[in-house]
Amino acid sequence: MFREKIKVLDCTIRDGGLINNHYFTDEFVRAVYKAVSEAGIDYIEMGYRSCRSFAPESDYGPWKYCDDEKISRIIDGIESTTKISIMVDAHRVKDQQFKPVDQSPVDMIRVATYVKDIDKAIAMLNIAHDLGYETTVNIMAISAEIEKDLVEALEQLAETPVQVVYVVDSFGYFYCEQIEHIVKLYRKLLPGKEIGIHCHNNQQLAFANTIEGIIHDANYVDGSLYGIGRGAGNCPLELVMGFLKNPKFRLEPILKVIEDYMLPMRKELEWGYMIPYVITGILNEHPRAAIAMRKTKDKDKYAEFYEQIRDVM
Amino acid sequence: MFREKIKVLDCTIRDGGLINNHYFTDEFVRAVYKAVSEAGIDYIEMGYRSCRSFAPESDYGPWKYCDDEKISRIIDGIESTTKISIMVDAHRVKDQQFKPVDQSPVDMIRVATYVKDIDKAIAMLNIAHDLGYETTVNIMAISAEIEKDLVEALEQLAETPVQVVYVVDSFGYFYCEQIEHIVKLYRKLLPGKEIGIHCHNNQQLAFANTIEGIIHDANYVDGSLYGIGRGAGNCPLELVMGFLKNPKFRLEPILKVIEDYMLPMRKELEWGYMIPYVITGILNEHPRAAIAMRKTKDKDKYAEFYEQIRDVM
Q: Which of A117, A231, B51, B151 could form a Cys-Cys staple with A287, CB 3.0–4.6 A?
């Protein structure tokens, strides 16, 4: 039933960090690392490697920077074969430093980029590759790109050493036929590279679109515990595991960490199915307007919000 | 973009009634009827037509019986072209009475059945058809049926006057490739009939599977407000509307009734994404064990529940 080439990446700490400015406690990050390790998950993403000159330390927790030393302290003493990834924004980089891979706890560097920043992304991918890291590029917000521009970016990436190119549905807009089209386009233009898929859950399609990606041969798959992530959140990791049926997976540690940590966290942080994110998803918009309105007293005025958003389009 | 043949049915009151023994207030039912009417939804299902000898009135609210007089009072004075359906369980019928359609506010009778009760269902469908009602048959729990038995039931249904045969994923088990297979099977064996689709949301696949059904020519589509329904609930109606893009639809009244009624209701009734329902979905089990455990103090002991359920299989 299962396809051995499929690699699952848990992005709980990284994508979840977008809702709390990356202030997760050491206890929580250790618990997640331990659980995904016991569960047999292939990768865990610890957060962003951001420059302190762009993102001042007064505003963010440690998972905005993912210092090697910090990661090493967190994972110390936990038995694991789970590899560690960090994410870097191609468009927010300044004197970014990486040690060679053999001096770092990090195994993989994932470069997040918009199509317009693809040259910056490629420069960064080359640096990471030359230092010995596994590399991926995650092209964000492609539902709002002109396909011709996307094709050009993919053609450029085909010439680089990047190993995995991710389809990212940042706005939670796509449904299955669109995912099929995009994944097939990536496969055609990126011979020899693996395709990844990272979906957002605005329309409750993150898991379904992840399956659709898998059907069309995307082999790198992102999920997060209980679907945590900005706005509507991500594809729930527990659903991906239930679907893949890889005999090396163990679901129990994942269920346990959800019951012990994610349920209490859900009372303090907001993510998941909410109508404002449905609306931005349906309209193929960035969720920022929904995020902003959820912080006001009118956070549940759905009909009003819909009229506002629709009218400015 | 839209396919005119597609008919959308709101099952808020009927499927939602399974979580509160059908005790919705008249105010709520009127508000839902008004909203779906203004939104241009094709059908609204008011509840079950159950026999009081099977289901004593001391245990249930009015939407367990859906008396014609009750429905007439609810809809009185509300402008609407939305048709009204009720559901009848084929296996729980005794001296069931229907008036001829022209003496009833009901337009459509939907017969819910298991494969083993298909003869009872057909008898009921013939009665309803002869009284002038539109008819559908909703074959439940087909993910747990032997396909040969299902095929035989479909062949029998092909010989009846029933207009619509529904694919029902009662356990929230199916993913897209299975839906495609089943919908194509129904179409092949039921020439001249319409196919319907009713999905449960255990694995957050209800909307995606509904889309999959639509792609393969299912033209009758069920949804409920904010996904209300037993356990993990149903396909959210608001998502179906956003997808279909039928110009006759208006989303605003739906968003308004969600904000005014469904959000407060959600604080009192439980439905939606919960790990115990994920587990029964993944394991292709009836949700009853999950429903039972959600009523105990151990309602959030997910890992323990998974081990229990898996071990009795």
A: A231
